[in-house]
């Protein structure tokens, strides 16, 4: 097979068939579809029965998305691997576009793309990456030209795809940029299966950012490419595991920030060689992440000691947060009001 499409799923009976259909609607026919049912307790197994003779299906005990993706990647036989979440969709040309690119550029280990965001109520944003990763791209602080060292037009590469002429392909070593900012939409990636022998598989200890940490490892070892064409459709709905709009939203934010901090510690601070060469940038990133973990911690609970500890770390890295540290001594309700005011004034 040319491409293995890995679809992890957990209790997505209302969406899983749409995802599978989009995989089988690919213009590239040399594909295999692997569905890893991560211990679903709904009717998933029943609704996908019509596809069982066309897919590789395995049901495991619930172990989380990293576990499910790892199971699928170990089953993969394709030259290239891509992921598809079971509530999302592919554009028909996704596999052909990325696989034909990797066929031509052997020095590239991974390629990712633009993507679209949508919901079932009519919302649709065709070029969604910069909105999705607004913390990196807002106000033009980071551009694709900043991240990548090379760029070419698709029309100058013989990919044999219609209606893709003016779009741009960017290439380069982007670990430094990705370490500083979340700039890669990991769902849209396609990578060479052979690099798993060197990079390894996903690590569930990094929680909701297990995919970011995995891709960061790829970026550390290989040149990557970005094709400025939407190939993936991200569905928004109120049962997304990474959503922050539900009642448990603040705890999701705190967990995400903890995961990001752990990743930065592993790949920056604890990587002695990298840290010695990039101390200033690593210290800045560590201070930012400690700060943005402290802020949500200040808005929950009655004991701000943990938040204060993270703010003290900012000072240790050379970026003291004296105002926020002072606020940690205020009563709970006053802390929340102060954080809201600072946020509205864009002072956080």
Average residue-wise pLDDT: 94
Tell me what portion of residues adopts beta-strand conformation: 15-25%
CATH class of the largest domain, named Alpha Beta
Q: Strand count, sense and closure of the main sheet?
A: 11 strands, mixed
For the terminal residues, how far apart are their CA atoms? 49 Å
Number of helices: 16
Shape: globular
The CATH superfamily name of the largest domain is: Spore Coat Polysaccharide Biosynthesis Protein SpsA, Chain A
CATH topology of the largest domain: Spore Coat Polysaccharide Biosynthesis Protein SpsA, Chain A
In the CATH classification, which architecture of the largest domain applies? Alpha-Beta Complex
> How many strand elements?
11
As for the number of domains, it is: 2
User: Would you tell me the structural class of the helices and strands?
Assistant: alpha/beta
The radius of gyration over CA amounts to 21 Å
Proportion in helices: 40-55%
SSE order, as H and E?
Answer: EHEHEHEEHEEHHHEEHEHHEHHHHHH
Q: Which stretches are low in confidence, meaning pLDDT under 50 for 5 or more residues running?
A: none
């Amino acid at each position: 097979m040319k491409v293995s499409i890995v679809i992890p799923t957990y209790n997505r009976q209302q969406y899983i068939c749409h995802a599978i259909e989009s995989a089988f609607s690919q213009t590239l026919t040399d594909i295999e579809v692997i569905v890893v049912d991560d211990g679903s307790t709904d009717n998933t197994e029943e609704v996908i029965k019509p596809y069982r003779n066309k897919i590789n299906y395995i049901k495991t005990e619930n172990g989380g998305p990293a576990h499910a993706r790892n199971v699928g990647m170990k089953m993969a036989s394709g030259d290239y691997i891509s992921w598809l979440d079971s509530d999302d969709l592919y554009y028909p040309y996704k596999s052909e576009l990325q696989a034909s690119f990797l066929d031509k550029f052997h020095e590239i280990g991974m390629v990712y793309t633009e993507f679209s965001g949508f919901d079932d109520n009519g919302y649709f944003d065709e070029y969604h990456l910069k909105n999705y990763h607004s913390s990196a791209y807002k106000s033009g602080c980071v551009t694709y030209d900043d991240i990548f060292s090379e760029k070419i037009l698709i029309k100058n590469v013989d990919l044999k795809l219609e209606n893709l002429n003016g779009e741009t392909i960017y290439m380069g070593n982007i670990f430094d940029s990705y370490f500083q900012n979340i700039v890669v939409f990991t769902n849209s990636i396609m990578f060479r299966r052979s690099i798993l022998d060197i990079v390894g598989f996903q690590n569930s200890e990094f929680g909701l950012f297990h995919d970011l940490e995995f891709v960061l490892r790829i970026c550390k070892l290989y040149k990557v490419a970005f094709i400025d064409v939407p190939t993936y459709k991200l569905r928004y709905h109120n049962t997304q595991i990474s959503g922050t709009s539900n009642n448990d939203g603040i705890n999701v934010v705190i967990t995400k920030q903890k995961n990001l901090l752990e990743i930065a510690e592993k790949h920056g601070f604890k990587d002695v060689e990298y840290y010695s060469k990039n101390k200033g940038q690593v210290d800045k990133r560590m201070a930012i992440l400690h700060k943005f973990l402290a802020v949500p911690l200040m808005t929950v609970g009655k004991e701000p000691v943990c938040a204060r500890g993270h703010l003290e770390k900012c000072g240790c890295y050379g970026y003291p947060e004296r105002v926020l540290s002072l606020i940690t001594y205020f009563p709970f309700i006053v802390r929340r009001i102060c954080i809201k005011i600072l946020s509205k004034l864009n002072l956080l």
